Amino acid sequence: MSEDGSASWNLRVYGILVENSKVLLSRETYPGFEGTMTKLPGGGILLGEGPLDALRREFEEEVGLRISSADIFHVPGGYHQSHFDGSQVVSLYYLVTRSLDQIPRQMNSETVDGVAIYQEFFWSPIQDIEPSQMTWKTDREAVEILVKKFDQATSN
Q1: How many angstroms separate the CA atoms of 88 and 52, rounded?
Q2: Per-residue CA distances from 97 to 55, 69, 102, 137 (Å)
Q3: Rounded Cα distance, 154 and 127, in Å
Q4: Of 82, 72, 83, whose CA–CA distance to 14 is shortest?
Q5: With 80 as the cut, is the pLDDT of residue 5 above it?
Q6: Would you give the distance in Å from CA 155 to the centre of its chain?
Q7: C-alpha dist (Å) from residue 85 to 7, 22, 82, 143, 146
Q8: Are 42 and 15 in contact (CB under 8 A)?
């Protein structure tokens, strides 16, 4: 909550791209965060933008991929406070697919508030992922659900 008592929201959208029993992850640097973060690709929803439009924009800008389909996968139910500005974070996670003729970027860089940030994209086998590897609590929740569903599907 801001000093004047008004609420501050941070709406986020993330894509879970799974292919060949691997999920696409991002390792990033960002101003105000020491070291690197490991997270699912995605980012903020802009004012006037719908969640799916934001997801498509984020994937095109960051990963260099056009999303061909997206289905809601997880919406965290608890309260989550932003590490960066104290706002309340509301995140939406979608299971996404891409056109098969596209190749994701390996690296991306841009400037935020005059500081260069870097993103490295990599595939991680789902069976090898530990949710604790993810920097943010909401990503850990989504990855935990993904790992459980993968385990159930491969044990049947």
Answers
A1: 20
A2: 12, 5, 11, 24
A3: 10
A4: 72
A5: no
A6: 27
A7: 12, 33, 6, 24, 29
A8: yes
Kindly report the pTM of this predicted structure.
0.88
Distance in angstroms (rounded) separating the CA atoms of residues 97 and 77 = 25
Spell out the SS3 assignment of the chain: CCCCCCCCEEEEEEEEEEECCEEEEEEEEECCEEEEEEECCEEECCCCCCHHHHHHHHHHHHHCCCEEEEEEEECCCCCCECCCCCCEEEEEEEEEEECCCCCCCCEEEEEECCEEEEEEEEEEEHHHCCHHHCCCHHHHHHHHHHHHHHHHHHHC
CB atoms within 10 A of CB 52: 16
Q: For residues 149 and 66, what is the distance between their CA atoms, to the nearest angstrom? A: 25
Please say whether the beta carbons of 144 and 131 come within 8 A: yes
pLDDT tens per residue across span 27-53: 998 887 888 999 999 999 999 999 999
In this prediction, residues 72-99 reach a mean pLDDT of: 93
State residue 114's pLDDT score. 82
pLDDT at 7: 67
